[in-house]
Structure formats: structure tokens, C-alpha cells
Design brief:
single chain; 121 residues; mainly alpha; 59% helix; extended
Length: 121
């Protein structure tokens, strides 16, 4: 793969900064209200796209596991705190996917701790 002059540090960092804020959305969300607008039409994912998403999720999980295994306890606490943040609050309607996501986050942390304690092969 060849690199172009446009792939230097400035354009790349600019692209990354745009990615971090979703192309203009700040920490408080979009700069303009979308409340009165009709929802955008989002096409259904094809089978190929779904397979690619599954592959990417598996790859990300397998990258995150060793990163968590080598992370200090503080990072584990932060990750568990994030799982708690997305768990349903008292009096709110629980969403099954969010509950599963929070559970899966804790399972990833537990799996990482298993690898931390495992002797090297």
C-alpha cells in the first residue's frame, strides 16, 4: 500500500477529529435540532453486510480482550462502570439489547481477567 502526501499527519488528524465528533456533533449532540424532521430512510442491511459486521465485532472483541488483560484495575472499573451506565435505571423500560450489551461487557472483562491469570504458553 502506498501513502500519498495527503495522508500526512495533518489531514489524517483532521479526519480523525471529524470522526470523533461525528462530523460536527459536539458533546451535547448535534448543533441543530432534528426533532421536527422526518426520520431518514435507512436501507436494510444485506446478508453480506451483516456477515461483515459480525466478523468485525468478533475481531474487535478479540482485540479488546488482551488489551483489558493488560490494563490496570482502574480500567476494569471504568469498563464495568460503563456497563452499569447502559443498564436500565429503576422506573425505566428495560431494553433487552441494552441489557445483553451490559452483560456482554462484563463477560469480556471477566474473560480478560482469566487471560491475565493464565500462565504463558
Amino acid at each position: 500500500m502506498t501513502t500519498k502526501a495527503s495522508d500526512g499527519p495533518e489531514p489524517k488528524s483532521r479526519r480523525l477529529s471529524e470522526w470523533d465528533n461525528e462530523g460536527g456533533a459536539g458533546r451535547c449532540g448535534p448543533k441543530e435540532s432534528t426533532a421536527g424532521l422526518p426520520p431518514p430512510e435507512i436501507p436494510e442491511l444485506t446478508n453480506t453486510e451483516l456477515v461483515q459486521l459480525r466478523i468485525r465485532v468478533i475481531a474487535l472483541e478479540n482485540l479488546v480482550t488482551p488489551l483489558l488483560a493488560g490494563a490496570p484495575e482502574r480500567q476494569h472499573g471504568l469498563a464495568r462502570s460503563m456497563a452499569e451506565q447502559i443498564s436500565p435505571r429503576a422506573g425505566m423500560t428495560p431494553h433487552p439489547l441494552t441489557i445483553q450489551a451490559a452483560s456482554h461487557m462484563n463477560e469480556l472483562i471477566d474473560r480478560a481477567l482469566h487471560y491475565r491469570d493464565a500462565p504463558p504458553a
